[in-house]
Design a protein that fits this description.
The chain is mostly helical. It contains 9 helices and no strands. Helix 4 crosses helix 5.
Length: 181
């Protein structure tokens, strides 16, 4: 019974990640390209926030991060198949996705840790610029929003216990609220 409930909770977390990543706010107000790669990057960005929470929770028994990873990559694979890719192409693309995922997670981790420890957000800003805006310097004015958004969500989740976060599906803060700050 617990396994089924936990699996449903992780599915809800992933649905929340996808929902917030598809928010028109990112594409209209923050001028992101509405394409597959950007949606992938926003999903990774939001998943990182939850992975970071669990990394800092130091709960070695929790499998939520692994379960979220599994659901996320199963969804990516299913989307590729729905787009008409065959087995060989799917396998090649999934290897690219996994490599990109680990690279982004490592850069976000380094960036947010330096940001928190030394109050230096430059690496995190550069990581966001490179990953979400593909290095487009014209978009630099939106980068601080993403830095604040990441920090606000991390602080929001850390301020609550795991039980509360899980029962709320790790709901991200309202982006409309953030846009006013």
């Amino acid at each position: 019974m617990f396994f089924k409930k936990k699996n449903n909770q992780v599915q809800i977390i992933y649905q929340n990640i996808v929902r917030i990543s598809r928010s028109k706010f990112f594409y209209l107000d923050l001028k992101l390209k509405d394409d597959f790669e950007t949606r992938f990057d926003l999903i990774i960005f939001h998943a990182f926030i939850i992975f970071f929470y669990y990394k800092n929770l130091n709960d070695k028994k929790s499998s939520i991060s692994q379960d979220l990873f599994d659901i996320m990559f199963n969804d990516f694979e299913n989307n590729l198949r729905e787009m008409g890719f065959g087995d060989i192409a799917v396998n090649k693309k999934m290897k690219v996705f996994i490599t990109a995922f680990y690279g982004r997670i490592a850069q976000y981790s380094k960036g947010i840790e330096i940001c928190i420890a030394k109050n230096d957000k430059s690496l995190l800003q550069q990581t966001i610029l490179n990953n979400i805006y593909k290095g487009n310097l014209e978009s630099k004015k939106y980068i601080d929003y993403f830095v604040s958004y990441m920090k606000e969500n991390i602080n929001n989740f850390i301020s609550k216990d795991e039980f509360t976060n899980l029962n709320n599906g790790f709901c991200f803060i309202n982006i409309k609220y953030m846009s006013k700050n």
